[in-house]
Specification:
about 400 residues, alpha/beta, Aspartate Aminotransferase, domain 1, Aspartate Aminotransferase, domain 2, about 40% helix, globular
């Protein structure tokens, strides 16, 4: 498919619509991206109206816009809007899905080495409390996920396949579409953590073939912190346990029984931040208007450039593996603590983060990494900003 690149004129305009780009060079998009100004204005304006006219009254006024957030999310991932629940973050979304599964002693979970710490804690919990076993499929020596080894690991006891598509502290990717084809062939539940994926790469839950998918808003979607969503395929919603309920999630109630809603909003509670919900919707709309396929093309270009420039610096080691890599670029500088590198760059108004071993525990332990420097690019970053980063790193290494 021929994808039209984001032009330099568009980049200039997108940066003009993002006040943060005038203050900092921001390479911490895998932590939290700069919000577009329109997202910030949407949240603030709603809160101002709420403060002067009343919370319930303003909710009624914006009911159509609030409901439209579900439709926008559904469009983003090619789902139906009754398959979307809006929650506070990806960990909440993942936990609702995972803990809703009716695990039994002897059940098996299959995962990858890129799993996030929250998910690993969930696996350990059901191991300890329910006698569920865990199979971890490591990447091969080139850093690629071995689909043949994975399929051979599936057994009649396999209850869940859980995969994180893009890890927190590495630049590689897990082939979730190919895994989904295998999961469907074996009729095994499939949960995808797309925390770092949404807004960075095109997502199509029908193509992926997943039953559940968890997302945060603050990262590549450029939404406010405290936003996220959960996709749960319509056909499995009734099979998942509800972890909490109120009159919104279960609106049909008698003194002797109750009935959950007939859509994915059964996994929500009534009370949530409506201003942030609108902000999430505006951020999704912003990404859709640009085109996520175009965003992904731009991110791949910038990440490839950054890796190439870093690899050319004597004393810098790039730690990313695998045939397909994302906008997260991880590296270390010889003789310098990674936290020191982060702090020195911060002094120069350059934001990066330190990727901790706990965040992607299996991968980091396998590769003997205690931590690394994580520089994550987004479409609004520029080639010039990459050159500034590399110049500052060179200066550190010779000082």
């Amino acid at each position: 498919m021929n994808i039209t690149p984001i032009t330099e004129q568009e980049i200039t305009q997108l940066r003009a619509e993002t006040i943060g780009t005038t203050q900092k060079i921001h390479f911490n998009n895998a932590g939290a991206s700069f919000n577009p100004d329109v997202v910030v204005d949407t949240v603030i304006n709603y809160l101002r109206e709420e403060a002067t006219l009343g919370g319930y009254e303003i909710e009624d006024k914006y009911r159509d816009e609030l409901n439209n957030t579900y439709r926008l999310i559904a469009k983003l991932i090619n789902a139906d809007d009754d398959e979307i629940a809006i929650v506070e973050n990806a960990s909440t979304a993942w936990g609702i899905a995972f803990n809703g599964i009716d695990f039994k002693p002897g059940d098996e979970i299959i995962t990858c080495e890129m799993e996030y710490v929250t998910n690993i804690i969930g696996f350990i919990n059901v191991q300890k409390t329910l006698g569920v076993s865990l199979k971890i499929i490591p990447n091969d020596v080139q850093g690629n996920f071995p689909l043949d080894v994975f399929e051979q690991a599936i057994s009649p006891k396999t209850k869940l396949i859980a995969m994180t598509q893009i890890p927190s502290t590495a630049g590689g990717m897990i082939p979730v579409v190919e895994i989904g084809k295998i999961a469907r062939r074996h009729r095994v539940l499939y949960l995808v953590d797309a925390c770092q994926s949404a807004g960075q790469i095109p997502l199509d839950v029908k193509e992926i073939g997943c039953d559940m998918l968890s997302v945060t808003g603050r990262k590549y979607l450029r939404a406010p912190r405290g936003t996220g969503f959960l996709f749960i395929r319509k056909g499995i919603q009734d099979s998942l346990k509800l972890l909490f309920m109120d009159g919104y999630s279960a609106p049909t109630v008698s003194l002797h029984d109750f009935k959950p809603r007939g859509d994915a909003r059964r996994f929500e509670l009534y009370e949530k931040n409506r201003a942030l919900t609108l902000g999430l919707g505006k951020a999704v709309d912003y990404a859709l208007n640009i085109g996520v396929d175009r965003i992904w093309k731009r991110i791949q270009y910038l990440a490839t450039l950054l890796r190439r420039e870093l690899a050319a610096i004597e004393g810098i080691t790039v730690h990313d593996f695998g045939a397909q890599q994302c906008g997260i670029v991880t590296f270390s500088a010889k003789g310098l603590e990674n936290a020191l590198v982060k702090n020195k760059l911060a002094d120069k108004n350059i934001n990066v983060s330190v990727g901790k071993a706990i965040s992607t525990l299996i991968y980091m332990d396998k590769n003997h990494l205690l931590n690394n420097v994580r520089a994550s690019v987004h479409y609004y970053n520029t080639e010039a900003e990459i050159q500034v980063l590399c110049t500052e790193l060179k200066s550190m290494l010779v000082s």
